[in-house]
Amino acid sequence: AGHRVLLVDADLGGANLHTALGIPAPHATLSDFVAHKADFSDIAIDTPYANLRFVSGAMDAVYIANLQYQQKQRLLRNIARQDVDFLVLDLGAGTNFNGLDFFLLAQQGIIVVLPEPTSIENAYRFLKGAFFRMLRRWQVARAAAQGDQARDARQDREPAEQDRDGRAPGDRGEPAGGRGPAGATSGAASA
Predict the structure, then answer these.
(1) Which residues, in sequence order, are CB contacts of 136 under 8 Å at separation 6+?
(2) I need a labelling partner for 186 at 20 to 30 A (CA). Which of 23, 55, 149, 167 fits?
(3) For the segment 31-41, what is each residue's pLDDT rounded down to a tens digit?
């Protein structure tokens, strides 16, 4: 009894891993899952290889290469929750956000490089893109956490700002602590 492995052809828009496996293109693919025509468990098929199941991206519709954010998040969640020992994602070349996000899903990433200048250059660009994508996620998460901390601090401070008659400075129509109109906030967020 070997390890249970799920191989997902996540080369969106250019999937052809079924050919490398020597199996015909499956009837249900990632595009069926994305279009809500099939559950993820329905598109994972057995292969002639022991303990290897396969999810094909073959025969995908043109839109699959440019998933909407919600579609990608649903796909990532379903891939991540598979009950397998090893999950292998075959990704296409390039630094598109879909490929980078699938790569960053992994606990360990493997990049295949040939001893050719173009292959090395593409691998470098991919690693740089993955690093900056991961850094951006960290920055967004950190900013969100800081925003939560600031909101909590304001809520903790509000009772102390009440005057003797129980009204906060902003309740009297004056600026709360000189920060502008009561309840006004400013900030920027980006995804």
Answers:
(1) none
(2) 167
(3) 899 989 999 99
- For the record, the structure tokens of 95 come out as 């630094």
pLDDT at 79 exceeding the cut of 50: yes
Tokens 């360990």 map to which residue?
Answer: 108
Residue 11 Cα distances to 26, 100, 191, angstroms: 16, 11, 24
| Spatial contact of 83 and 53, defined as CB atoms under 8 Å apart | no
pLDDT tens for residues 91-132?
988 888 888 999 998 888 999 999 999 999 999 999 999 999
Contact 175, 184 (CB under 8 A): no
Strands (E), 97-156: none
- Look up residue 116 and give its DSSP letter: S
Q: Using CA atoms, how far apart are residues 5 and 175, in angstroms rounded to an integer?
A: 61
Q: What is the rounded distance in angstroms from the CA atom of residue 95 to the CA atom of residue 124?
A: 10
Structure tokens at 96: 């598109």
DSSP code string of 34-72: HTTSS-HHHHEEE-SSTTEEEE--TT--GGGGG--HHHH
